[in-house]
Write a structure and sequence with these properties.
single chain, alpha+beta, Aminopeptidase, Alpha-Beta Plaits, 8-stranded mixed beta sheet, 4-stranded antiparallel beta sheet, 11 helices, elongated
Length: 409
């Protein structure tokens, strides 16, 4: 059985790793230095590894016969300017695909995920005599843009690494108190769709609106009408979110522009509701344009997050392992989150179960949310809890009695 307690040296290394990663974030699919850092750590531990999906890294820890278990940690940062007062705060910058240089920080805690996973690797190497099997460590890029898991699958991760019987993952989360974990059974996180809508009009002088088709007014009607999808087209008990995140149009106050552009983010929990909401968006956008006598708008997909589904049977096993490790009072059941994750693509792509949980990052009330410029999880007990949870779940999944035996004829 795995010992989930770190040595003093391992804990110090965990903290140093976290500080380094927090200070040096990189944007999605640009995690070059992060990948090199991970490779150096795996190399030092004697773990075979390979690049996958561009800036992804896969480590394979083999230790004799036994089950194969996958464990995923995402690696990318966000285009946010950090506003914490931490000594190790980020001053990094990155370049968006459109060429814009932006500040970068680990505003979603992926630095904790990588640090925890590397500490868990080191602990399992030290304890080789206490377990058997194989762990596939998946350091995945590009979670924030839903590009990373798909890129690793397309690059043949499951052709190049042993296929696991289960894939595990976790995420630091402000809604759970530090020292605790939380998980949902079944649908755990929402599917997400992001769209770019380009509204086409007719340019004119601001004093001659009769000669224009105003895309700003038209776009404003679209955005307002889109908010009726959830409130008027779905049953009140059906969770969904339709958010307009950006709206851009025009260059000067006395020119009615030729076009306007806005972006949408949609969160749904089931495929049926997803298709209903997307269909309603298309209908409303086109109908509003027709009502204004405007050309048909364009609707482009920016990205799409898959479902994140926690297998019922495996979730119960993970829950039991976490309770045995942390205590019943530190393991909470939660409702599905409306946030999204591309983790589910990794197990779904080979038809194996996945289980994903959250570990708390703050002990104070009203902590900053994920994606805040003030997001800075407390070092402890956050990091040690993440390691304990990872080792407990991995260790349980490696146990022979955790594998369903085939029915005899």
């Amino acid at each position: 059985m795995l010992d989930t307690q770190l040595t003093d040296a391992e804990r110090a290394a965990l903290h140093d790793t976290y500080r380094h990663l927090h200070r040096n974030p990189e944007l999605s699919m640009q995690e070059h230095r992060t990948a090199e850092f991970i490779e150096e750590r795996l190399e030092a531990l004697g773990i075979e590894h390979f690049r996958c999906g561009g800036t992804g890294v896969v480590g394979i820890l083999r230790n004799g016969d036994g089950a194969v278990v996958g464990f995923r940690a995402d690696t990318d940062g966000l285009p946010i300017e950090e506003q914490t007062d931490a000594e190790y705060r980020s001053d990094a910058t990155g370049t968006l695909p459109n060429g814009t240089v932006v500040p970068v920080m680990h505003g979603c805690g992926h630095d904790t995920h990588v640090a925890v996973a590397l500490a868990a690797v080191a602990s399992m190497v030290r304890q080789r005599a206490e377990w058997a099997g194989t762990v596939v460590w998946i350091f995945q890029p590009g979670e924030e843009t839903a590009a990373g898991a798909a890129a690793m699958v397309a690059d043949g991760i499951w052709d190049r690494a042993p296929q696991p019987r289960i894939v595990l993952g976790q995420h630091v989360f402000p809604a759970a108190p530090a020292g605790s974990v939380a998980l949902a059974e079944g649908t755990a996180m929402a599917m997400a769709d992001s769209l770019r809508v380009t509204v086409l009009g007719k340019q004119s002088h601001g004093s001659q609106p009769q000669d224009s088709i105003d895309p700003i007014v038209l776009g404003a009607h679209m955005v307002t009408r889109l908010q009726t999808i959830v409130s008027r087209e779905l049953r009140p008990q059906t969770p969904a979110v339709v958010t307009c995140g950006t709206f851009h149009a025009g260059l000067k106050e006395n020119i009615i522009p030729e076009s306007a552009e806005f972006t949408l983010n949609i969160r749904t929990l089931t495929e049926d509701v997803r298709e209903q909401v997307l269909g309603s968006i298309t209908r409303i956008v086109n109908a509003e344009a027709q009502a204004s006598g405007a050309p048909q708008p364009t609707i482009e997909e920016i990205y799409r997050f898959p479902r994140l589904y926690n297998d019922d049977t495996e979730t119960e096993r993970v829950r039991a392992a976490l309770r045995a490790e942390l205590g019943d009072e530190q393991v909470r059941d939660i409702a599905p989150a409306m946030g999204s994750e591309d983790f589910g693509h990794l197990p779904d792509s080979i038809g194996v179960p996945g289980v994903y949980w959250f570990f708390g990052g703050f002990s104070r009330e009203n902590p900053p949310p994920n994606h805040s410029p003030f997001f800075l999880p407390e070092l402890e007990p956050t990091l040690s809890t993440g390691v304990r949870a990872a080792l407990a779940a991995i260790g349980d999944a490696l146990e022979p009695n955790s594998i369903d035996e085939p029915d005899e004829d």
